[in-house]
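thread: overnight batch results

M.L. [08:02]
morning all. the overnight job finished for the chain we discussed friday. pasting input first so we're all looking at the same thing
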Amino acid sequence: MENTMKRQKIECWQCKRIFTLLIDTAGEPTLTKACPYCHAPLKLAFGGEPQNIITVMRGAAKSQPQEITVYQLPEILESSDPSLPQ
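M.L. [08:03]
and the structure it wrote out:
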């Protein structure tokens, strides 16, 4: 299966510092984390439409194509205050 883990740059909505976080681009499209610098709670919304990718394991006996859904993320993902409504 294709690796869907990505080290993503994230900008904190409160202190505006940029940090990285390892996230699963095929996982939940909205995550709640905390800034490692100011410890403010933050919400990450991947946004956009997910993209379907078909993978095939080469060399595996009777391997079947597998389809996974991933989000294409910007270079720096902006966070938001989780207490605010969407």
